[in-house]
Structures are given as C-alpha cells and as structure tokens.
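Data deposition worksheet. Section B asks for the primary sequence of the deposited chain exactly as it was used as input, without tags or linkers unless they were present during the calculation. Section C holds the resulting structure in token form. Section D is free text for depositor observations; keep each observation to a single sentence. Incomplete worksheets are returned to the depositor.
Section A, Depositor: J.P.
Section B:
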Amino acid sequence: MGMIKEFHNKLINHEITAQELVESCFKIIEKKDSQIQAFLTLTKKQALEKAKKVDEKIKRGDKIGILEGIPYAVKDNILTKGIKTTAGSRILENYTGTYSATVVEKLEEQGAIILGKTNLDEFAMGSSTENSAFFPTKNPWNLETVPGGSSGGSAASVASGMALFALGSDTGGSIRQPAAFCGIVGFKPSYGVVSRFGLIAMASSLDQIGTLAQTVEDAEIVFQVIAGQDKMDSTSCDLKQIQDTRYKIQDIRFGLPREYFIEGLDEEISEEIKLVLEKIEKEGIKTKEVSLPLTSYALPCYYIIMPAEVSSNLARYDGIRYAEIKNLKSEVKNLSDLYFKTRGQGFGKEVKRRIILGTYVLSKGYYDAYYKKAQKVRRLIIEEFEEIFKEVDFLITPTTPTLPFKLGEKSLDPLKMYLSDVFTVGANIAGLPAINLPIGWSQDKLPIGMQIIGPRFADNRVFFIAKAIEELIKSRIKK
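Section C:
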C-alpha cells in the first residue's frame, strides 16, 4: 500500500487528524530543510486552516476523497493563487500569481493541502538544482551530492518525508532524473494528457507536468486527478477516450535499446538493471534487445528545439509587467535600456546561455540549418519510437548515466551537465509516457533508478507494469 492510501485510512479511522498530519510534515521540514533546502516558500498557516476543515468534515461523518487532507509540495514554476511563484529566478522574485494552474485547482478541489513551493533550476533549466537564483538544494541521501534537476526541490521534499507527494515539470527529464537521484518514483505523462495551463513556460512543445511520490500507486492516484482535457490548454486531451488494453504480466514484451546501454553508463546502474531483468524474466516476462539508431541525435535535437522555444517564451520578461528589479527604475534612460538592465540583472547565466543559443538558431540564415533540421529529426525520432512499439510493449532503459554527482562537480561545464539528460530527452521529443522506478542502491548508499517508456497515451499501462515490477523488487529498494 502507498503512503496516500495509508494516511487516508488513518484519517477516516480517526488514528490521526489532518492537522496532526500537516503538523508532522512541518516538523520534518523544520528539522531537515535547513540542510536540504528543498523549499522556497512555506504556507503553514493556510495548510493548517485547510486541515482543520478536513477534520471538521470527518467529525461530522462526511465522506472524504482519497487526497483530502493529504499534504503535498508544488514546484515553484507552477502557479498558485496568492502564493509566490518565482520559477527560481530573481526576475520573478516578488511575483505572486493571480490564479492557480489547472493541476493545482484539481488537487484543491480534491482537498489536498499545499505545504509550500519547492526549489528548482531557474526557469527549470538545469539538471542539478544548482542553477536556482536563491540556493542549491541538496540530496537527502548525501548532502554533498545534488538531488538532480530541475525538479530537485520536489524530489528532495518527497524523498526526505517532508511531503507525501509533489508536483514537478519535465521538459527533458526534469522529473525522472531527480526522482532517480533521490530514490523515488517520478512519472512524466504523455504530452497533452495533463494540462500545462499555469505552468511557467520553458519549451512549450516539450514541457509536461507530472508527479513525484514514494510509490507507483501514489504517483498514479495523483495522476488520475490531474489528468484530463482542459479548455485553457488547447494541446490537452482526455486519456479516458483513448483505448487502453490491460495485460497479464506474462504477455508483456520489453525492449532493451542497445543505444541506452552504452560505454560511460555507470557500472553499478548497469548491474542493478541486470538484476531487475533477471527477476522479471523469471516471472515469464519476455525481453529482447532492440535498436533505436536515432538515439544519438535526440540530445542535439533537444538542445536546438528547447532553446529556440525558451528564447520565444522568455521574451515576455522585459521589465514592464512581471519583473521588479530593485533600484532599477532610477537608472533606466530609455525602453531599450530597461530591457537590457532587467534581463541582464534578472536572468542567471544558464538562462542567458539558452536564450542566446535559441535566438541564434532562430535567426535569419541559421533557421533552416538548425531549427528546421531539428524539427525534421524530431519527426524521425517519433516515427522510430512508433515502429519499435510495434515489436515490444515497453522499453526499459537506465534513467541516468551516472549516480548523483557532487555539488559543483558539473556546474562549470554545461556540456557535462546536459549529458545528464541523455536517456530522458527522447520521451519528451516524442511525447511519450515514462516513469523512473527506484531499483536499488550503490555501494555508497546512493539511489539507482530505472526508466520504463511506453507508447504515446499508454500512461495507464505504464503504471500497470511499473506497479508489477515494483512489487517484484520491493525487497531490493527498502530504504
């Protein structure tokens, strides 16, 4: 049983009150977060007020929903009405949303309780949460290592027991990679299955909101609430209308793409995945090696399309509507000066790097050579995945090429940092559902994750098989 059902049962059986549950989370935050630094903003007063209403409802004998009274954390690039949303950037340091994202509204309707907003790489650009304009977040399992990124604060809050689940966003692996580094479940839905309305846009054709949780069941419970068509997001769709097939576990065929099991993959990760494969093969699940030759083009394709969309999306931060850089207005001579000074002082190095790169690939003379070519490659990658899913039901791959690395180890080398996403970007380029499953521990007691990728819109099937594998290997992943 997952934590959500466990605490739901405790609430309805009067073993714990919602206020006690929320208080216990804040006690853990008070104890641990000064070191981990997962949260940017805490909302204790509002959380306890909401918990009190849930307790009153239970006292009256009214039924409560599965998420009612359950405390969770929200990545700070997802809008929350009346609560600061900074996107981890100085340019939005004092910004408070006037409305909530659709996913937050859906969870509010179900009675889930926000504990606060979590740290991230600025505008979700990074793989370590070291690019936050405020402070880096640390990995709960080893404070000298990174929690991954960009949803590092969300992953660390769940892994350390500060929140029962968290919302994150995934543009190239930003849910799955930190989930792997922190030893938890991280699910990126198919593109369009969860509304992006209220998510601060980074790269709109790649961004997807998803869930981080201790178990697959918990991630699925939250997903079922936040999924669905939204009139505020024209790219959203209703998964319920898409036909899905339930399998017997023994009927499943797994593909192991040889391009993902490459030189440079950490040996301990490779060994743990082999042990999982041995275990599932004993259950009669079939595995076969497959090939995705275009895998080597996924990362370069991503690092052209993503910065191009970043350049366009971040043009709105011009110092007029959103940003309030302190002591700036007295220095400004003209409109052009306002743009330069706002963006120069408000954006961090990584954000500037991606805006410059994106503007370059969209510029006259380079658009065809870079952006247009990358879009053609994207179409080929999508078709390659479609073909492989005619042979197999799911793909099993490593989530990350390395174990959690030390703080500062890659922050001065952007290319090394970008390679952290080498196994995760393909699912974003093709809009596929993918999940990180914690599968074991390194000799240094650092978490190891494995990725399961499914065909587009097979989100429910990915949960089905992930739960089955989680059950098979649960003795290996006990914390």
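Section D:
The domain at 1-282+395-479 is CATH 3.90.1300.10 (Amidase signature (AS) enzymes).
The two ends are 15 Å apart (CA to CA).
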